Amino acid sequence: MLTGLNRDDANRYVERCIYVNLSGYSVPDFIQTVAMKTGIILDPTYTGKAVRGLLQEIQAHPDQFQGKRILFIHTGKATPN
Known about the structure:
single chain; mainly alpha
């Protein structure tokens, strides 16, 4: 959890929020590639799709991300219902 970061701080540091449509089926090939290249295992239902959407956004608009730090925040539930 981030502590000590208020709305004014967030507005100063966050340049862009990306919203990803998570409809459709899981992305097993993408998840396997990420795991093999990075050692990071993503869940196939939500996080995998969200990371795929983020990478698609970076590829579509590389000039907007060049030289910038990227923070991926997953805001979904930690446990199922």
